[in-house]
Amino acid sequence: MEEISWIIDIAGIPLDGTMALMTILTCVIVFCIVFFCSRNLQMKPKGKQNVLEAIVDFVKGIVSDNVTKKEVNDYHLLAFTFFMFVLVSNILGLMTKVVIFPDEVSFWKSPTADPLVTLTLAFIAIILTHYYGLKKQGAKNYFINSFMKPTAILLPIKIIEEFTNVLTLGLRLYGNLFAGEVLLTLIAKLGASSPTKFVLALPLEVIWQTFSLFIGAVQAFIFVTLMMVYMSHKIEAEH
């Protein structure tokens, strides 16, 4: 049977309780990681501070590859926030996949394994690129730079491109995470079907969950990299 989410009915409006809880949990985990690792900062970092600074420097490298050096700090925190949320969201469901089966309802999954979540993240990212483009260049210069260059003939294509950017950015993340969780669920069901199959399924589950850490990090990297590429197109004037 198909695995479904826990649905809550609020005033006649259905709410995906699984996604709501997992999104809140992701935000709490991200906050706790940053809070814990940033306590008692030292000039010579060690331990937990090293971990946080390594992530910060990694994200700063992504930003610096796409914007000018003097603008890195303007977008670094934004990129770091997106990276941490997507990374934790990815790992939360893939590395710790837990499925509870009253009527095949799942109470635990990656927020990024839901297309509404990933498309919302992508939509917010694209909207922010427009906001910062308008903020830096002004309405007239922004419109010309974003939609009228290198030629005004491309205006319809440029407009369509904004919608396709949201779809590709969101669906790429969703597809990879959804496929990973489906595979983990199938392996778990295989192991639960018989003791013999459990012996076969256990190492497969362990191997795939280990590999999921790499998958989650790569997808977070790709998401933030593409977001900053789109950002650079909006804030930098074409010549």
UniProtKB/TrEMBL annotation:
<keyword id="KW-0812">Transmembrane</keyword>
<feature type="transmembrane region" description="Helical">
    <location>
        <begin position="211"/>
        <end position="231"/>
    </location>
</feature>
<dbReference type="Pfam" id="PF00119">
    <property type="entry name" value="ATP-synt_A"/>
</dbReference>
<dbReference type="GO" id="GO:0045259">
    <property type="term" value="C:proton-transporting ATP synthase complex"/>
</dbReference>
<protein>
    <recommendedName>
        <fullName>ATP synthase subunit a</fullName>
    </recommendedName>
</protein>
<comment type="similarity">
    <text>Belongs to the ATPase A chain family.</text>
</comment>
<keyword id="KW-0066">ATP synthesis</keyword>
<dbReference type="GO" id="GO:0042777">
    <property type="term" value="P:proton motive force-driven plasma membrane ATP synthesis"/>
</dbReference>
<keyword id="KW-1003">Cell membrane</keyword>
<comment type="function">
    <text>Key component of the proton channel; it plays a direct role in the translocation of protons across the membrane.</text>
</comment>
<dbReference type="GO" id="GO:0005886">
    <property type="term" value="C:plasma membrane"/>
</dbReference>
<keyword id="KW-0138">CF(0)</keyword>
<keyword id="KW-0472">Membrane</keyword>
<dbReference type="InterPro" id="IPR045082">
    <property type="entry name" value="ATP_syn_F0_a_bact/chloroplast"/>
</dbReference>
<feature type="transmembrane region" description="Helical">
    <location>
        <begin position="173"/>
        <end position="191"/>
    </location>
</feature>
<feature type="transmembrane region" description="Helical">
    <location>
        <begin position="116"/>
        <end position="134"/>
    </location>
</feature>
<feature type="transmembrane region" description="Helical">
    <location>
        <begin position="20"/>
        <end position="38"/>
    </location>
</feature>
<keyword id="KW-0406">Ion transport</keyword>
<keyword id="KW-0375">Hydrogen ion transport</keyword>
<dbReference type="GO" id="GO:0046933">
    <property type="term" value="F:proton-transporting ATP synthase activity, rotational mechanism"/>
</dbReference>
<keyword id="KW-1133">Transmembrane helix</keyword>
<dbReference type="InterPro" id="IPR000568">
    <property type="entry name" value="ATP_synth_F0_asu"/>
</dbReference>
<dbReference type="InterPro" id="IPR035908">
    <property type="entry name" value="F0_ATP_A_sf"/>
</dbReference>
<keyword id="KW-0813">Transport</keyword>
<dbReference type="InterPro" id="IPR023011">
    <property type="entry name" value="ATP_synth_F0_asu_AS"/>
</dbReference>
<feature type="transmembrane region" description="Helical">
    <location>
        <begin position="77"/>
        <end position="96"/>
    </location>
</feature>
